[in-house]
């Protein structure tokens, strides 16, 4: 009998600990998620490094949507060497599925919405298409051309 009482007491305290932990995470998220825009310069640098082209983001925000995290970015511009805002996105929103992300240990998205996309393309005489402001050369090993070819192919 005392074993059952002890097991129930242990289960009760484990449940209390889990509830307190979840409440702490929710409260911390409510305070920390609005500060995501403070990391905008670092995010812009990372995106610029990945794409090989300058990337500018006007605003980044985050909030809780149930137990998932909703991230949004407004006015994203990608510049090429000779063309400012060769690629422009007015709004980008995506919802990080937190339970699936934690289970798989890799980002899992529930919703992904892109709106207000404006792409400036250039076609040369041979039918090759590229972002405006980029050179079209088949043997180029420039990081910018690699990034563009990943998107266009």
Task: Please give the structural blueprint.
Blueprint lengths: L1 H31 L7 H12 L3 E11 L2 E13 L2 E14 L1 H7 L4 E11 L1 E3 L5 E3 L11 H10 L1
Antiparallel strand pairs: 1-2, 2-3, 3-4, 5-6
Describe this structure in words.
With 153 residues, this protein is of the alpha+beta class. It has helices at 2-32, 40-51, 98-104, 143-152; strands at 55-65, 68-80, 83-96, 109-119, 121-123, 129-131. It starts with a helix and ends with a helix. The mean pLDDT is 83.
Characteristics:
single chain; 153 residues; two-stranded antiparallel sheet; alpha+beta
Summarize the structure.
The chain is an alpha+beta fold and about 150 residues long. It contains four helices and six strands; from the N terminus they run ααβββαβββα.
Structural class: alpha+beta
Helix-strand pattern = HHEEEHEEEH
Task: List low-confidence stretches.
Answer: none
Coarse shape: elongated
The number of strands is 6
Determine the strand fraction and express it as a percent band. Answer: 35-45%
Q: Describe the main β-sheet briefly.
A: 4 strands, antiparallel
Helix content: 25-40%
Q: Output the strand order for the largest sheet.
A: 1-2-3-4
Mean pLDDT: 83
Task: Give the N-terminus to C-terminus distance in angstroms.
Answer: 69 Å
Q: Count of DSSP helices?
A: 4
Cα Rg: 23 Å
């Amino acid at each position: 009998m005392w074993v059952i009482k002890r097991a129930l007491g242990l289960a009760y305290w484990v449940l209390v600990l889990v509830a307190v932990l979840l409440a702490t995470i929710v409260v911390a998220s409510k305070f920390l998620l609005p500060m995501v825009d403070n990391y905008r310069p670092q995010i812009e640098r990372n995106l610029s490094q990945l794409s090989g082209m300058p990337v500018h983001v006007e605003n980044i925000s985050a909030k809780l949507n149930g137990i998932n995290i909703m991230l949004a970015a407004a006015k994203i511009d990608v510049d090429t060497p000779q063309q400012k805002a060769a690629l422009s996105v007015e709004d980008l929103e995506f919802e990080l599925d937190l339970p699936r992300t934690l289970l798989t240990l890799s980002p899992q998205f529930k919703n992904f919405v892109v709106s207000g996309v404006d792409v400036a393309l250039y076609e040369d005489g041979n039918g090759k298409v590229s972002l405006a402001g980029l050179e079209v050369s088949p043997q180029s090993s420039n990081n910018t051309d690699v990034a563009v070819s990943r998107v266009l192919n």
